[in-house]
Write a structure and sequence with these properties.
The chain is mainly α. The protein has a domain of 52 residues. The protein is built from 2 helices and no strands. The radius of gyration is 25 Å and the shape is flat. The chain starts with 26 loop residues before the first helix and ends in an 8-residue tail after the last helix.
Length: 81
């Protein structure tokens, strides 16, 4: 008999590490990557050169990040009238 408390009754009850037990990718970042890839593919399929499509998405992403940071900081700034 098992001398330990809470010991599993048989080997089927023991949890084993699987290949899927690695680090998980956050869903929001994954969605952003997929959307950017789809936008790039759509621009390229519709005739835009690949270099131009990538540059356009890079600039738009950079401006979007800057806009989001400034909007988040805007309520914290007090204006003297």
């Amino acid at each position: 008999m098992n001398s330990r408390k809470n010991a599993p009754a048989n080997a089927a009850c023991v949890e084993k590490a699987t290949a899927n037990s690695g680090p998980r990718v956050p869903a929001s970042e994954t969605v952003v990557v997929v959307v950017v890839l789809l936008l790039a593919a759509a621009l390229i399929v519709n005739g835009m050169p690949a270099r131009t499509a990538i540059t356009t998405l890079t600039v738009a992403g950079t401006l979007g990040v800057e806009l989001a940071r400034r909007l988040a900081a805007a309520p914290a700034v007090r204006r003297a009238c």
